Amino acid sequence: MHSAGYLANHFARLMAVGLQRRLKPLGLAPAQFMVLLELWDRDGQTQAELVVGLDVEQATMANTLSRMERDELVTRNPSDEDKRVKIIRLTERAKKLRVPAQKAAYDQNMHALSDLDENEQFQLVQLMQRAVSTLKRR
Amino acid sequence: MHSAGYLANHFARLMAVGLQRRLKPLGLAPAQFMVLLELWDRDGQTQAELVVGLDVEQATMANTLSRMERDELVTRNPSDEDKRVKIIRLTERAKKLRVPAQKAAYDQNMHALSDLDENEQFQLVQLMQRAVSTLKRR
DNA sequence: GCATTTTACATAGCATGCTATTCAATAGGA
DNA sequence: TCCTATTGAATAGCATGCTATGTAAAATGC
């Protein structure tokens, strides 16, 4: 009845809605937040690097970045060495969102796991990570 | 870096792509399969019942059912007692897909969990279920 | 050097999922 | 009864994600 696949989908949807609610006051959407996490860690990455970092398809990243450019979260400028490459940089607005946005995500995660003890939280993360690894090879 | 929320999303995406590949030869999409699971168990449910069973928004279910009607998987007929209600019924085509589609889903789940032992598989499902429960109350 | 292949990104088209709104039918209360 | 509230479903509009394809720039092979 409640297979791993169904539960993964259900869990992910509930987490996305929860995070969306918390990020909305900041004018930020969940997928945008994931990109910002990458860029807060290292600004000025290329689109291809973000694709690897977040493991989404190139087309998905291109579209997300378009919306982020529209929302003045990032700029996209061609690299000098290679005109095919676009360098993605944080705007001032995006830099200011770091602390509140990370708090929103932290709160959502804490809420989701609030019925699990420390060890169970660790187990859940570990087990999901191992399933993801299995699915990624191939 | 790899929070529960990120992992849930990643896990769910990988499972959806895997299931999609396996269901494609049957002419079936993942969300359609979930609806069929409900109807194979009990045919002739209303849209509202399917919404409760799968815990998606009413609008999401309406759109999924439109695509399923288009693909000749279900019929939608108004109830006699209450003309607002639509009764959703399986077509012959959908009835025939039951065994191969459930095998596809079973195979995908087995693959995803193939690196975990019996106890770990059980733990993962239990822990996801508990997180889902927490997120649903409220 | 030039043709071919590869790479980086963009675009088209679609499925799934959400929120918000609308519409029609039914139920409930005065 | 009639007016209002509620209910069941459809629709609009959008974000996220996918596959498939197009385009331009760079790299490679002869």
Describe the 3D structure.
- Two copies of one chain form a homodimer.
- By secondary structure, chain A is mainly alpha-helical.
- Chain A has one domain: Arc Repressor Mutant, subunit A, CATH 1.10.10.
- Chain A is 67% helix and 9% strand.
- Chain A has seven helices and three strands; from the N terminus they run H-H-E-H-H-E-E-H-H-H.
- In chain A, strands 1-3-2 form a three-stranded antiparallel sheet.
- In chain A, strand 2 and strand 3 form a beta hairpin.
- In chain A, helix 1 runs antiparallel to helix 6.
- The mean pLDDT of chain A is 96.
- Chains A and B meet through helix 1, helix 6 and helix 7 of A and helix 1, helix 6 and helix 7 of B.
- Chain A binds a DNA duplex (30 and 30 nucleotides) through helix 1, helix 2 and helix 4.
- Major sheet summary line of chain A: 3 strands, antiparallel
Number of helices of chain A: 7
Number of strand segments of chain A: 3
Oligomer description: homodimer
Backbone shape of chain A:
globular
How far apart are the termini of chain A? 27 Å
The fold-level CATH name of chain A is Arc Repressor Mutant, subunit A
SSE ordering of chain A:
HHEHHEEHHH
What do we call the CATH homologous superfamily of chain A? Answer: Winged helix-like DNA-binding domain superfamily/Winged helix DNA-binding domain
